[in-house]
Specification:
Blueprint (H helix, E strand, L loop, with lengths): L2 H30 L16 E2 L4 E2 L1 H14 L4 E3 L1 H26 E4 L19 E4 L4 H19 L5 H9 L2 H19 L5 H18 L7 H11 L4 E3 L1 H16 L4 E2 L4 E3 L11
Antiparallel strand pairs: 1-8, 2-7, 3-6, 4-5
Length: 279
């Protein structure tokens, strides 16, 4: 075989390899390319259309991500300011009641002092003791009305007339017992993190506990509960920044794990309408 013949045969073989490679690539490309359908959104499909390969369902993934995002509740955090406000208001209320009771039931004893050589018989010394007094019913009614007015104006609280009347008329030992318990329970409740529903439940539990543990004045437990409900406010507030971060994290978590449509899964059935998601 001459050199010319060898070159010719080598060229033929090389050409055959090139043609075979092109044919193979074309076959693989054609086989892997999805079948094309001339359909637009809103058209009715005349075919059953199936997924040609595995791929992410972006529309369904997005829907689930938005759903997960919407299911994240608002992030609420405890507010020291609100907690302190409830405690301060209770202290001020109890102080106001004590002052009104003292004005009604106590009076100072003032002594007139006449010193030798002092021609002023009207000179008095500071009160050196307090003595109890017995107010009449009219004075008590005035004190009740005054207490309600002062509480409304200074604390922006509407003290019910029944509670105001009870506070003014009760004997001193009973008032001091209520005062001490109410103050302690207010501090305990304000230290918790409570919304309106949680606060109501805690006060109900407090009343039940007091009824079972109070040795004296057991009947005052519901009264104390009403005062706690009047003064103490929920101490949680909405935190927008934390809520946004929590919702974004839920969204990203779902988007990072997309819903997959497996090869061969039916996308559109014959007679089905082409939707933007299917398109």
């Amino acid at each position: 075989m001459t050199g010319l013949e060898r070159k010719a045969r080598l060229a033929v073989n090389l050409l055959f390899v090139i043609v075979a490679a092109v044919a193979m690539v074309a076959t693989v490309y054609i086989g892997s390319s999805p079948k094309q359908y001339d359909l637009q959104i809103g058209d009715v499909s005349a075919y059953d259309i199936s997924a040609p390969r595995d791929f992410a369902d972006n529309a369904e993934t997005m829907r689930r991500a938005l759903e997960a995002m919407a299911q994240v509740p608002n992030v609420m955090i405890r507010s020291e300011e609100l907690s302190d406000a409830s405690s301060d208001t209770m202290r001020q209320l109890l102080k106001t009641i004590q002052e009104k009771r003292d004005e009604l039931y106590k009076e100072p004893v003032i002594s007139v002092v006449t010193e030798p050589g002092n021609s002023d018989p009207g000179q008095t010394s500071p009160p050196d003791e307090i003595r109890p007094r017995r107010p009449d019913n009219h004075e008590i009614e005035i004190a009740v009305s005054s207490l309600i007015s002062v509480v409304d104006q200074t604390l922006n609280l509407v003290l019910p007339s029944g509670e105001a009347d009870a506070f003014i008329r009760m004997e001193e030992g009973r008032f001091q017992n209520i005062k001490a318990i109410t103050h302690a329970e207010t501090i305990s409740i304000a230290a918790k993190t409570l919304d309106q529903q949680g606060l109501r439940a805690v006060i109900d539990d407090t009343v039940a506990r007091l009824e079972s543990t109070m040795e004296f004045y057991k009947d005052d437990a519901p009264f104390i509960g009403r005062i706690l409900s009047l003064v103490i406010r929920p101490n949680v507030e909405y935190n927008a920044d934390a809520t946004d971060k929590a919702r974004q994290a839920a969204y990203d978590r779902v988007m990072g794990d997309p819903v997959m449509i497996n090869r061969g899964a039916r996308i559109i059935s014959q007679g089905g309408v082409i939707t933007p998601e299917a398109k």
